Structures are given as structure tokens and as C-alpha cells.
Amino acid sequence: MTKLNQYILFVFVTLEVLLYNRFFAVQAAVSIIEYLFILFVLARDFKKGTLYFIAFSLLAMGKWSYVITEEIPFNFWGLRFFNFSVNIFLSLFIFLRLILKYKKNIDFDFVNRNRLIFIYLVFTFVIGLFSTLFGINYHDDFISDVFVSIPIITSFYLISIYSHKELQNLAVLCIKLTTYSMLLSYLFNIEFEYSEGEYFVLMNSFAFIVPFSIFFFRKYLKKEEYIIQVCVIAFLFITGKIFLSGKLMIIIVLLILWLIYINRKSTIAIAVATSLFLITPVIIEGVTNYVNSNVVLQWKFKQIESGLSNYNNLMLTEGSLGNLFAEGYLIQDHFKQNKRYFVMGKGLGAGIPDKFQLLSVTAGAGGYKIEDLNRNNYHIMHLSLLDLALKGGYLWGALFIFFVCRFFFMGNIFSFVTFILLFMVYYTSKEMILITVLFYRLSIFNNSTRKLI
């Protein structure tokens, strides 16, 4: 079984935090050494070298930690030569070497059972290519989406060469190191800025899932480790140092529903969950009125409160919550004007016009580019389902809903995390694609309806 040296990963994570957004020459030198180390291990043991590459990619401080930074960093995630990502280049190199030299290690059963995903990628590529050639989609948006699609293919192949135990050990180790990195970020006051004057602990790919899932990994951790992990996350929550996105608010609701489902035979569990739903407005009002130390947290809760009071017109709710509903409404309206999109979508590079001026107010600040505003063509959707339906049409959207919901009902924590990643963020970066495929494979390995908590 392929094992990683956890002390090497410990040093990697420590350097990622301590060198964050400073000492750029040192950061670049360290990143080069890290890539040379991977190449060295690859030459001696292909599987171990690839696993180190996967682990480094998932643990590196990436897109979220540099969310408002204009310059691309020199860390493992951002290092570039001649404006080309070293990370992308190495992933393609490993993929080609796997196909050409280590093909026997690939689990083709796993790859082939997911050929519908590859059919979707080919379908949206062809539709997007024609849409671009005929001036419907912008060529730079098309190219951007192509580069996002490639990691989906490479990730399936790279993850397929590892066993259940190897991937589970990797996931648990990454969870522990992510909690450590967040604590280190807090202790050394090395944090990222989200809005003016608001700072949060650094985030890697695992930081999206750890805050809501750590409590359910107790069977995979030693008792002392579990207590420490939970205490650290709880402390960072209480101090307001974990960034709470609008998506995390939705995840909390989905988590409660999931707990009800897997404990559906327990009257006490259902009673507790129902009570939480009933007092949700009280909780929101209390946080809105009394949590003054965290402007972002207060703002997110105000969005929810506004949505609850204006549920008949949710797309007018301020912030990212309103954007989600506005995007869905605009896609529906756009498809009504162009009936063929219902079936075919617009392919890679797809965008929608902001006919009712619902998205323009947050261009440049809410995930939309200023260029989208100038073109009146909004390319990035804030929910996986919306992005997929826009590119592939409603048929693919319906298949995606069926595909995703299966993981909700599998009943284990790996499948629930997979459900959240697929539903929310899988398409936002190559690292999120990688972690989604990792948990997807683990959820299949762990497919069970037994009660885990």
C-alpha cells in the first residue's frame, strides 16, 4: 500500500502558511524544491510521487485564500513559468505518463462506469465550439471552460490508481493537516482579507468541507485527535475566524435534512431537527442583532433574513443568496427566448445576458468580472446545477440532479461530502474538481446505508 510521510506534508503545510503572500523569492524557491521533490519521487515510485502531487495540490493555499489578490502567488498552487501554471503542466505530464507507461494501474471499471460524464464533456465541448464559431459565446470564456474541463478527465484517471485504504488515509490526513493549518494561520495572524478590514484563517481545498464535516469523522480519528480537531474548529467558529460563505449557510440546512434522513427511525433525532427548523428565524434575528464583531457573518445572516421575509421574490435578496436565484431566473428567461437551449444548452463558454439588471450591481465584487458587465454576458454561475444546465441544457440538468441525489441517500459521511461538493463547487477550480473526484470514489467504496453517527 502506498503511504505518504506525514512529516513531509506537515512541513509543506507549515511553509504554505508561514510564507503566505510574503517573502516571494523564498516562496518561489520553496515551490520549485517541492516540484523537484515530486519529480524525484515519481522517478523512483510513480504511485507515491503521484499521491504526493495530489496531496500537495489539495493542501496548498489556493484560489480562496487569494480571492482578492490581484497578483498570482508563487506558492505550489500559483507558481508559473512563462505565464503557464506549473501545477497544470505537471498534472498533464503525470496523466500522459500514466496512460503511456503505467496503464495497468488504472481501474478501468471505475473510469468506464462514469463515461456519461465524459460524454457530457464532449457534448458541451462540441456545442460550445460551434457557439463560439458563430459568435454566440466568447472565445476566451470557451478556452477558460476547456481548461476547467481537462482536470475532470485527469482527476478520474489519477484517483483511479489508488485503493480504498490509500484514498481514505489521504483524506483523513488532509483533514487533520487542514485543521492544523487553520490554527497555525490564527496563531501567527497570517490571514486572508475578504472584505475591507475583515480577515479569516487561510483556506485550502479541504477548508471548504472541514467546518461542517469534521464532527462526523470520529470513527476515522483517534479519540485525542478527534477532540482536538473539533475543539479547534469550534473555537475558530466562535471567534469568527472561519469564513462563512452563503453556500455554507445552505449546507447547514442540507446537513440537518441529511441527519433527519439517516436517523429517520429515531423519534428524538427528528424532534430535535424539527425544533432547530422552527427556531431558525429566532437564531437569525439574534445573530443579526447581536453579532457585531464579524461584519461578513452579520451580512450573510441578513441575506438569509431578507430571503425569508421576501421568499416570493428571492432573486431580489441582496448578496450571493439573491444572485443564486437571479441566475436561475435569467437562465430560464434566456432559454425561453431561444428554445433550442432547453435541449442543447450553450456549451462551454456559455453566458447569459442580465436582461433585468439583477447581476450588474455585484459585477467586480460578487464573482462576476467587470468584463461580463461590459459585454452583458455573465459567464460564471454560482451553483453547479445552474452552470451545468446553462452549458448542457435541461436534460443534462435533470440527469445531474438524479446523479447528485444518489449520494445524499447513501448514508455515509463520504457520500454526503460528495453530494455537497457536486451540488455546490466542483467546477470552480482544478483543486475542487480533484477533491470532488476523491470523495466520489470514497463514497462508492463506502456505499452503505448503515447509521454512522
Task: Please tag this protein with its features.
453 residues; mainly alpha; two-stranded antiparallel ribbon; two-stranded antiparallel sheet; 64% helix; 4 strands
Kindly describe this structure.
The protein is mostly helical. The protein has a domain at 6-242. Helix content is 64%, strand content 3%. The strands form two sheets. A two-stranded antiparallel ribbon has the order 1-2. A hairpin with a 2-residue loop joins strand 3 (191-195) and strand 4 (198-201). Helix 19 (394-408) runs antiparallel to helix 20 (413-424). The radius of gyration is 22 Å and the shape is globular. Residues 448-453 have low confidence and may be disordered.
Structural class: mainly alpha
Q: What separation lies between the terminal Cα atoms?
A: 29 Å
- Major β-sheet profile: 2 strands, antiparallel
- The number of distinct helices, counting runs of at least 4 residues, comes to 21
Q: How big a fraction of the residues is strand? A: under 5%
Mean pLDDT: 84
Please state the CA-atom Rg, rounded to the nearest Å. 22 Å
* Tally of strands: 4
**Strand arrangement in the largest pleated sheet:** 1-2
Low-pLDDT sequence parts: 448-453
Helix content: 55-70%
Draw up the topology in text:
Elements: H1 6-18, H2 24-44, H3 46-59, E1 80-81, E2 84-85, H4 86-101, H5 108-112, H6 115-133, H7 139-160, H8 164-187, E3 191-195, E4 198-201, H9 210-213, H10 223-238, H11 246-262, H12 267-278, H13 280-290, H14 295-309, H15 319-337, H16 340-344, H17 370-375, H18 384-392, H19 394-408, H20 413-424, H21 430-445
Antiparallel strand pairs: 1-2, 3-4
